[in-house]
Write a structure and sequence with these properties.
Layout lengths: L1 H10 L1 H20 L2 H13 L3 H9 L3 H24 L5 H38 L6 H26 L4 H18 L1 H16 L7 E3 L5 E7 L3 E6 L5 E5 H4 L5 E2 L4 E11 L5 H15 L11 E7 L4 E11 L3 H24 L4 E3 L4 E6 L3
Length: 367
């Protein structure tokens, strides 16, 4: 049968390679199904008791990507054994480059998704348990640097395994960059300013901002070289270089707002003044470590329901204005603080139900 298959490669190459690809893909998929089991086995070896919890919370949500990565790795390895070891196929190096690139891409996506889940499930909780103010912007920068390091590591490994002179590439880019920098210094400063604005996000399109020179208006567009501001009153369009904006004190009036988070706790009985004071203290202590939370505005109200047999606690918290991923991280930190608050109240023997989800309401600040 094997000789007949090999003779098919000479008589009908197209049919031969079609059968080869289908058989190899089927084998790769079957081997890929084993990868989740191997991952759990390795986690049990290194993480001991926490392996099952870690796998279910971090890896299990991305099981499809894990299986796909295993299938891609199996396809690459078996193809290398057959096409390079058993049969020598001249065009295999080109095929191997594409296979390894696909494997690196899927692996990078898997690690990226797993890291995001790990960041949300573990690092945010650890930050709050540290007992210090949790700076959401610092967490955001740390997540960005970790992801950038992951991408750079995968790119470096891919380049080294395929004999790509990565040092030479960076050196060439460095020499070329120096030459360009001298010839277009001002333009580069403006372009880099645009990159800083896109990363730091001090303002967005449609935000009202004020500059130290008296310019005040609505941001109409943010370009790589300059930002266009429609001035209030006159209606003229001010074109401000991005390099000037990143060095100036920009006052964002649209960002002057709070997001009001309302949490409801339903107790199964009425509570006295001493228990109310305890509940108020637990709520304040559980939320005081969140950076960006206006503790001075926190309001905790008690209401009697069902003729005084039940008590409802309304905790109104205010998250200071932030945009994009930073606000999302602050909301996640608040959810973790709610879990801590729940555990502490139950440890005091106070039974209750917490209404889901937390209500978020934009609360503009009067300027």
């Amino acid at each position: 049968m094997w000789d007949a298959y090999l003779s098919l490669a000479v008589e009908n190459p197209a049919l031969f390679w079609t059968i080869f690809v289908i058989a190899l893909s089927t084998l790769a998929i079957l081997l890929g199904q084993i990868v989740p089991w191997l991952t759990q086995l390795l986690l049990r070896r290194f993480l001991k008791e926490d392996a099952k919890t870690f796998y279910s919370r971090v890896v299990q949500p991305h099981r499809f990507l894990l299986t796909l990565t295993g299938a891609a790795a199996a396809f690459d390895i078996v193809a290398w054994i057959l096409l390079q070891g058993v049969w020598y196929v001249p065009w295999y190096p080109t095929l191997e480059f594409g296979l390894t690139l696909a494997l690196s891409t899927v692996l990078g996506l898997l690690l990226f998704r797993c890291f995001q889940t790990y960041f949300n499930e573990y690092l945010l909780s650890a930050a709050l348990e540290g007992g210090r103010k949790t700076n959401s912007e610092l967490l955001l920068v740390g997540r960005f640097l970790a992801i950038a390091g992951l991408i750079l590591t995968l790119f470096t490994l891919f380049a080294q395994t395929h004999r790509i002179n990565i040092i030479g590439i960076f050196a060439s880019l460095g020499v070329g960059g120096i030459a360009i920098a001298f010839s277009a210094q001002k333009v580069l400063e403006q372009l880099l300013g645009g990159v800083v604005i896109y990363i730091d996000r001090p303002f967005s399109v449609d935000d009202y901002i004020g500059l130290p020179d008296g310019t005040f208006g609505r941001v109409e567009a943010i370009g790589l070289r300059s930002t266009k501001i429609r001035t209030s009153g006159k209606g003229t369009l001010a074109v401000v270089p991005n390099s000037s904006l990143i060095q100036a004190t920009v006052e964002n009036f649209t960002g002057a707002k709070k997001v009001m988070a309302i949490v409801y706790l339903n107790l199964y009985r009425s509570v006295g003044e001493e228990e109310q004071a305890l509940i108020r203290q637990v709520i304040l202590e559980s939320t005081q470590d969140i950076f960006g939370l206006d503790n001075r505005s926190t309001n905790i109200a008690f209401r009697n329901l069902d003729g005084g047999r039940l008590t409802q606690v309304q905790a109104t918290l205010f998250i200071l204005g932030a945009t994009g991923s930073s606000m999302e991280i602050r909301r996640q930190l608040l959810d973790i603080a709610n879990q801590k608050m729940t555990e502490r109240l139950k440890s005091y023997g106070i039974s209750f139900d917490i209404e889901e989800p937390t209500v978020y309401v934009d609360s503009p600040i009067t300027i």
